[in-house]
Amino acid sequence: MDAETVLTTTRSVRRKLDFDRDVPQDVLDGCLRIAQQAPAAGSMAAQFRWLLVRDAATKAAIAAYNRETAEASWAKYGHLVEARALASAQHFVRNLERVPVLAIPCMIGRPPADAFTQSAYFGSAYPAIWSFQLALRDRGLGSSICGYHLQDHEADVAALLGIPDDVMQISLLAVAYTTQRDFRPATRPALADITYFDAWERTGSLG
Ligand SMILES: Cc1cc2nc3c(=O)[nH]c(=O)nc-3n(C[C@H](O)[C@H](O)[C@H](O)COP(=O)(O)O)c2cc1C
């Protein structure tokens, strides 16, 4: 798959995850090695960890924590979400334990308060997460981030997995083969509307 195709068609896959196909560890290893090449700010690179969960009972417990927060959120705000997107999110979260692998990227050390160090902290995690997602896509797998448990149950999931208090779970990714190979680029806002020149909200012509 060429770079532009991978970069523009790596979607959050929720409905097309193959719950029944095993994800071999050597395939995941290849994706994690690619993710290791992502940029990270100075010493933050040494603070990053992946925790991969395959155990059925552990996945079920993590999924239940995610569902609890997600269901409460949908009950309150579900009417504001487009019906198709809501149905897709519900299908995903209600079946989370069926996903072969849950990958939890973690950072040793809690996030700092100031913008400079916060930028370095989260900015040292998401390039690796995205590279991992791109590498999965290139190999016929898909993923979606699912972070509902971080709202109310980060500590519960930490206790379940033995994650120390000073380690933050940055996110959680559901990883599986996809039941289809072709995905399309998503609709995004017009580039001209989100690009400013020389001053805030000063739009201009794009080349
Ligand atoms: C930081 C971050 C957090 C996200 N959290 C969730 C989540 O909790 N549940 C979920 O279904 N998708 C989550 N997503 C996926 C977004 O909803 C998704 O990227 C967005 O809908 C755009 O769709 P696309 O990825 O297919 O382009 C998250 C994405 C990011 C980058």
UniProtKB/TrEMBL annotation:
Keyword Oxidoreductase belongs to the record: yes
Secretion signal, residue range per the UniProt entry: none
Record bears the keyword Ligase: no
Any Pfam family the entry gives: Nitroreductase
Ranges where the Nitroreductase domain occurs: 9-175
InterPro entries: Nitroreductase, Nitroreductase-like
Keywords: Oxidoreductase
A GO term for molecular function: oxidoreductase activity
Superkingdom of this protein's organism: Bacteria
CDD domains reported for this sequence: Nitro_FMN_reductase
Protein family (similarity comment): Belongs to the nitroreductase family.
Protein name stated in the entry: Nitroreductase
Biological source species: Amycolatopsis australiensis
